[in-house]
């Protein structure tokens, strides 16, 4: 390899590394403040990671799909059927959640993986508003083995199986633990909302609920 080629390769690796660092920074900010403005003091409590019941046998991972935009998310165990909208980053570098006047809408991080494609697709929803529960109010009650379906713009339905649920404190929020792949090569999905106690001083919750699921089937 020539010196020039070495410099080019080194520069490429530096740019990639910086992009990864910036993404993790944005996700860390997301984890700390994505749904942190509701005024309702009620909400899910901080808890341990939901362990896998020995009686629950998780299915094998399905082959990832190509990219296609998400349109709707269905979570049968929670009675959730919600439209999905693409969201970017706000002025602070955190992912911009759906507006509070759209409590039944789920946001998908449009600069990341599309649900069903290889990698980790990120979706966020509010836990509540000042007056009522929102789309992910019961997210922390999901159990390993339960199903999440995402309807895509290509007409296919990506079926995911939940494999763990984590409640992560915001004070020491770890973006890699929350959003990094559980197993390389899979199509994975993260559903994120607020958890823990409601802090009246900061008007935010003290933790985030992070549900992990992976692609196990597809349908028309």
TrEMBL record:
The chain crosses the membrane at residues 12-31. Keywords: Hydrolase, Membrane, Transmembrane, Transmembrane helix. It comes from Streptomyces cellostaticus. GO terms for molecular function: hydrolase activity. The lineage of its organism: Bacteria, Bacillati, Actinomycetota, Actinomycetes, Kitasatosporales. The keyword S-adenosyl-L-methionine does not apply. This is Sortase.
């Amino acid at each position: 390899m020539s010196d020039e080629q070495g410099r080019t390769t080194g520069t490429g690796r530096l740019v990639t590394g910086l992009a990864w660092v910036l993404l993790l920074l944005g996700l860390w900010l997301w984890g700390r403040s994505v749904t942190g403005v509701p005024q309702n003091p009620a909400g899910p409590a901080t808890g341990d990671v939901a362990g896998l019941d020995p009686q629950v046998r998780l299915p094998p991972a399905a082959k990832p799909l190509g990219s296609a935009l998400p349109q709707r998310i269905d979570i049968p165990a929670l009675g959730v059927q919600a439209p999905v909208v693409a969201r970017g980053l706000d002025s602070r570098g955190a992912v911009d959640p759906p507006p509070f006047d759209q409590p039944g809408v789920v946001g998908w991080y449009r600069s990341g993986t599309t649900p069903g494609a290889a990698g980790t697709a990120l979706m966020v929803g509010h836990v509540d508003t000042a007056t009522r529960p929102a789309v992910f109010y019961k997210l922390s009650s999901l159990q390993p083995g339960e199903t999440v379906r995402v309807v895509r713009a290509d007409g296919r339905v990506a079926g995911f199986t939940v494999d763990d649920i984590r409640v992560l404190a915001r004070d020491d929020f770890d973006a890699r633990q929350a959003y990094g792949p559980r197993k390389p090569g899979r199509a994975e999905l993260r559903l994120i909302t607020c958890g823990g106690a409601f802090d009246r001083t900061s008007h935010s919750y003290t933790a985030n609920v992070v549900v992990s699921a992976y692609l196990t089937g597809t349908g028309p």
